[in-house]
């Protein structure tokens, strides 16, 4: 049996070992070296072009798709020491909502134990379809709801930056510490203001299976054109600044992973939903004759 395996960046050091395990079972293994950011990021075309029967996607969980197997890779770690050493950073907050990326989601219970024995009130919620406390970069339901602050367990800032207006602390597994991340709203508010006054838009579409929003792109184009703007649909596999060189627009509208608005693409980037809200509203106002 031929299989194609996909491993996220942070776990690539394990790729050869994983391949060997499959080879020992008699499989012929191809390792995808393309970036792999989420369950949405499936290399189905490569699977088919390689004649592989199955794509085995490590590090994420997703819906049932024929010819795709998700292997979540949940880490067995103990974060209690890290949290206990950093508790003073949470002083002043009482109710702490705990969340984590999939890889570290079992640690939410350890965090709850440390917090409750130290006088805090931990909260863990389980959104339908996800594990207790689990968040994705585009699904932060487990971090929402009443609390004084949010504690995210994971590595890096990718997931935590999607969490709304509460103070957000990251327990970073790799760095072994807890730090607060600032609310990153200003950059996006500025981008929205610039978008309102832009004339030429580039609508970003990714061909990654879980991010491909062609109909949304067409709707955005229509709405912008109805508002007297120019809009062009730009298609990518992975959206990168270098690929946009020479494309002369004022602003980008993102229809792919919502976290792309955090990237530096050289021009303001806003999510499609926000552009539709702004320009549909201004259309309606025009229709009312106001
Ligand atoms: S759309 Fe973005 S945040 Fe959501 S799963 Fe995919 S990579 Fe992660």
What does this structure look like?
With 290 residues, this protein is an alpha/beta fold. It has 3 domains: 2-71, Diphthamide synthesis DPH1/DPH2 domain 1 (Rossmann fold, 3-Layer(aba) Sandwich), CATH 3.40.50.11840; 80-181, Rossmann fold (3-Layer(aba) Sandwich); 185-287, 3-Layer(aba) Sandwich (Rossmann fold), CATH 3.40.50.11860. It is 26% helix and 22% strand. It is built from 7 helices and 13 strands. It has helices spanning 15-24, 44-49, 80-85, 107-117, 185-196, 214-226, 272-287, and strands at 2-6, 28-32, 54-58, 68-71, 95-100, 121-123, 149-154, 168-172, 177-181, 200-206, 230-236, 251-254, 269-271. A 5-stranded mixed sheet has the order 6-5-7-8-9. A 4-stranded parallel sheet has the order 2-1-3-4. Strands 11-10-12-13 form a 4-stranded parallel sheet. Helix 4 links the parallel strand 5 and strand 6. Helix 6 runs parallel beside helix 7 (272-287). The longest helix is centred in the C-terminal third of the chain and has 16 residues, at 272-287. The model has no long low-confidence stretch (mean pLDDT 92). Iron/sulfur cluster (SF4) binds next to loops. The site of iron/sulfur cluster has 12 residues, from loops.
Short description:
Helix 6 runs parallel beside helix 7 (272-287). This protein has a 5-stranded mixed sheet with strand order 6-5-7-8-9.
CATH topology of the largest domain: the name is Rossmann fold
Helical content, roughly?
25-40%
CATH architecture of the largest domain: 3-Layer(aba) Sandwich
Give me the count of strands: 13
SSE arrangement, N to C: EHEHEEHEHEEEEHEHEEEH
How many domain modules? 3
* CATH classification, class level of the largest domain: Alpha Beta
Instruction: Classify the oligomer.
Output: single chain
| Residue-averaged pLDDT | 92
Distance between the termini: 65 Å
Strand content: 15-25%
Structural class by SSE content: alpha/beta
Identify the overall geometry.
Answer: flat
Number of helices: 7
The strands making up the biggest β-sheet line up spatially as 6-5-7-8-9
* Unreliable residue stretches: none
Quick one: biggest sheet?
5 strands, mixed
């Amino acid at each position: 049996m031929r299989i194609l395996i996909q491993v996220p960046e942070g776990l690539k050091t394990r790729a050869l070992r994983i391949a060997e395990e499959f080879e020992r079972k008699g499989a012929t293994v191809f390792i995808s070296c393309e970036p792999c950011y989420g369950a949405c990021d499936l290399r189905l075309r490569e699977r088919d072009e390689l004649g592989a029967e199955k794509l085995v996607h490590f590090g994420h969980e997703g819906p049932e798709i024929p010819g795709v197997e998700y292997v979540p890779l949940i880490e067995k770690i103990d974060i209690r020491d890290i949290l206990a050493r950093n508790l003073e950073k949470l002083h002043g907050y009482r109710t702490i909502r705990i969340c984590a990326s999939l890889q570290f989601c079992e640690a939410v219970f350890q965090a709850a134990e440390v917090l409750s024995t130290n006088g805090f009130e931990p909260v863990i919620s389980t959104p339908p379809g996800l594990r207790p406390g689990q968040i994705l970069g585009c699904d932060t339901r487990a971090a929402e709801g009443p609390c004084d602050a949010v504690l995210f367990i994971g590595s890096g800032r990718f997931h935590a930056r999607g969490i709304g207006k509460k103070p957000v602390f990251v327990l970073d597994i790799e760095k072994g510490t807890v730090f607060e991340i600032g609310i990153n709203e200003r950059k996006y508010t500025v981008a929205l203001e610039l978008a309102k006054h832009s004339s030429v838009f580039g609508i970003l579409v990714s061909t990654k299976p879980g991010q491909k929003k062609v109909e949304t792109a067409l709707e955005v184009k229509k709405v912008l054109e109805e508002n007297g703007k120019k809009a062009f649909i730009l298609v990518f596999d992975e959206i990168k600044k270098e690929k946009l060189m020479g494309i002369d627009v004022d602003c980008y509208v993102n229809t792919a992973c919502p976290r792309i608005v955090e990237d530096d693409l050289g021009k303001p980037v806003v999510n499609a939903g926000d552009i539709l809200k702004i320009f549909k509203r201004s259309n309606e106002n025009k229709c009312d004759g106001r």
